[in-house]
Amino acid sequence: MKLLPILAAALGIAAMAALVGFFGAGAVLRSLLAVGGSGFVAICAIHLILMVVMGIAWQALLPGARPWVAVWGRLVRDSGSEVLPLSQVGGYVLGARALALAGVPGTVAAASTIVDVTLEFLAQLAYTALGLAWLIRLQPETAAAGPIILGLAVGTVAALAFVLVQRRGFDYFDRIARILGQGWAVKTAAGAAALHASLADIYRRRRGLLLSFALHFICWIASAAEAWLALRLAGQPLPFVAVMAIESLMYAVRTAAFFVPNAVGIQEAAYILLGATFGVTPEMALALSFLKRARDIAIGLPTLGIWQAVEGGRFLRRRSARGPRGEVPAVPQD
């Protein structure tokens, strides 16, 4: 990890501890216990269902690939991002590698990851806009609308620019590589050309793109069911649209704070501020955040354990094939 993420994570942990201390660890624990073990299992089950659907959204970009491959890749991607002290990009790399180990060509795995992340981000922008609309309708006097609208505009421009780079940006790289023509540029240009071809192939399949976007948008909306259920079990029920407004804006804040590993401290503060708009107590807001972190650990640790076993087995097989000293066994001659 570089210095900035380490510093951001340390500050986030300190902020999280300060919030718990200020509002009372006992009160936060009581809110957590009010949800109960069965409630936590239900929240994990909802999230697993959503991850399966998000895996299917990824598979829509990979015609011919088996659905379980993309679902497994999605599990590894999210587990890496939410459990390990990695940036979101680190999780994307793990997910793409999981696809490659399952038989998807590496370039296709990388290209489909880029497109899937893009579509998910576009769906999140639509989800944030929907949440903002409900926030303004339910709380017309809120002061949060202006900054959120500005953030939406910036995010939309960034998303469109990212799509444009995927569709056109590699052309400029190809031109530069052709001018250089020799040496290091040959391999680099070949890899870039293969990635560009895979991206172009995915973008030609409009039906798959629309299906993936629609599934991601549905999952964003449905994800509010987890917080809605937790609040209901804890005795602080809210209408689903109010919970959706809180969740959509909280995830928008998380996305903006991408440089903080796992959004430590940022997620907790966002829940407190947004929850207060609808009467959610600070201790319940903190409990919601901790429930989500516990959910990520409960799902992510077994996933990463299986992932490590797969990687370890692959390494041992390759080592055995090379022999005790690393030599490749000689082929017997007739």
Tell me roughly what share of residues is in helical segments.
over 70%
Q: What's the N-to-C terminus distance?
A: 53 Å
Q: State Rg.
A: 22 Å
Q: Give the overall shape, derived from the CA principal axes.
A: globular
**What are the secondary-structure elements, in order, as H or E?**
HHHHHHHHHHHH
Give the helices and strands, then pairings.
Layout: H1 3-23, H2 25-59, H3 67-82, H4 88-101, H5 106-138, H6 145-180, H7 184-204, H8 206-222, H9 224-233, H10 240-256, H11 266-277, H12 282-322
Textual characterization of the structure:
With 334 residues, this protein is an all-alpha fold. It has one domain. About 3% of the residues have low confidence.
Brief description of this entry?
With 334 residues, the chain is mostly helical. The protein has helices at residues 3-23, 25-59, 67-82, 88-101, 106-138, 145-180, 184-204, 206-222, 224-233, 240-256, 266-277, 282-322. Helix content is 82%, strand content 0%.
Quick tags:
334 residues; mainly alpha; 12 helices; 0% strand
